[in-house]
Amino acid sequence: MFLQAIIAGTVLFLIIQYIRERNTLKKIAKHFGGPKPLPLIGNLLEFNKDVPEIFETGIRLLKLHGPDTFFWGLFNRYMLVVSSPKNVEKVLMAKQAQKSLLYTFLESWLRTGLLLSSGEKWFQRRRIITPAFHFKILEQFVAVFNKEADVMVTNLRKHVGGKEFDIYSYVTLMALDSICETSMGTSVNAQNDPDNDYVKNVKSMSVLFLRRIFDPLAGYPVLYELVHPRAYKTRKIVRELHKFTDSVIAERRKQLQESGEEGKRLTKSDENLYSKQKMTFLDLLLNVNVDGMPLDDLEIREEVDTFMFEGHDTTTSGISFTIYELARHQQAQDRIYDEIVAILGKNNREADLTYQVLQEFKYLEMAIKEALRLYPSVPFIGRHLLEDTELDGITLPSGMEVLVSIYMIHRNPEVFPDPERYDPERFSEDAESKRGPYDYIPFSAGARNCIGQRFAMLEMKVALIKLISNYRVLPGESLGKLRVKTDLVIRPHMGVPVTLVERD
Ligand code: HEM
Fold first, then answer.
1. At residue 272, does pLDDT exceed 60?
2. 456-471 pLDDT tens trace
3. CATH code for 120-502?
4. Which of 127, 174, 209, 314 to mutate to test ligand 1, by most ligand atoms within 8 A of the CB atom?
5. Which pairs count as long-range contacts for 326-331, CB under 8 Å and 24+ apart, including other chains?
6. Domains of the chain: which residue ranges?
């Protein structure tokens, strides 16, 4: 009898809590507007579609109800999507926030590396890792970008004068080789061995991640891990990915021990840090001290894995969507070619691009920025509020999920008139100075902004200069049909089909 009363009391409590929570949500939903949710399943039916359609539906609903829109998922899972500058600022600058639930799907692979960590751990890691992007180190990385872009250009030569082909896959492999070599000092040789296991596993993780976002069990991690067939597959792939990184770390540690380098621990003020020959990101982690202690292998692995994930799909999309726009806008491509000739001279095809020379490519930078406006590599970023937060005069409860839609922010017609039009002039110095700090944020803003943005810009510039100095890129027949899809990174659904003509 007593037990029955306890059960009945608990059930009643849960029902009351559910109704209360639902009423709060209804109030917020009414305030912001959004698609009408069905009982229990929310708006899940709207998203029960093929992959690019999921993205298109999200954008359609945001346009219809935005700039700030409320979505409801299974049961009481919900999120607010914001793109108005004042709400974006409040969310990105919130002192108390974690990455949203979506990111935890990557945790088995990336653990709590820089992207996923929060609080003190994040703060300490960001401090340690920041020197890896010092310009002295970036200068060395530029040599790697040159080498890998040269391989890409050579591999592309077989398409000159041929039928349309997908250039996205070539860019992906080039970016993967570049991040592997700069972060670990090792080569997976993806460009010449695309069937390499590591390359295949990284790709599979992206697909599994995307499928999980829209899985009905997405919000129930324990159940998902127990019963979902894809959970088993994910665990297997993660084991293999870790095995690879573990072996690279062990090998490098051994090399450093043998050369007597490992004992020479670095501190932030160590001048040698910036003058080291061929310093990789992994070397920095292997040599750094935190409170007098070196990082252990697991701590190093999570950071290296994070870089492998964040550091190649993002630049791949940046480069590929710039190619897409330049193929469609030959005048812009011509201006970049003129810039190449003006800076590097007529014999520019095999020029060795240095950090300093890359700073001179102003129009190219504008062209890349405009492509990142239309196709921001990370189109949404998510936060889990850790304290009640007021937006537009209404209080969002702590625990709420908020998505910042970079994709929609960049299409605000008041800031970017005729927003779908590709026009690099939007990034002239004069035009840029007239915009607010939250009008254009491809690398996010605030303390959690992208640590790799200068690295990314250098890699993108090198790849595009090498490509355009060698070939004129023309649109393939099916280029007009391009559709995009997104997991954490935006991608062309069927690649970027182009044709190539050799330059004189
Ligand atoms: C075009 C290229 C890139 C774009 C558009 C981009 C964009 C972003 C964005 C929007 C974030 C914020 C994510 C969030 O708040 O959830 C971010 C974070 C991050 N990015 Fe990038 N990224 C790019 C390239 C790179 C590269 C090349 C690296 C590494 C070499 C990198 C490493 C990271 C890391 C580690 C974080 C987490 C930083 C932190 O929370 O402290 N990114 N990136």
1. no
2. 999 999 999 999 999 9
3. 1.10.630.10
4. 314
5. 326/367, 326/464, 326/468, 326/473, 327/473, 327/474, 327/475, 327/476, 327/479, 327/496, 327/498, 328/422, 328/475, 328/479, 329/422, 330/474
6. 120-502
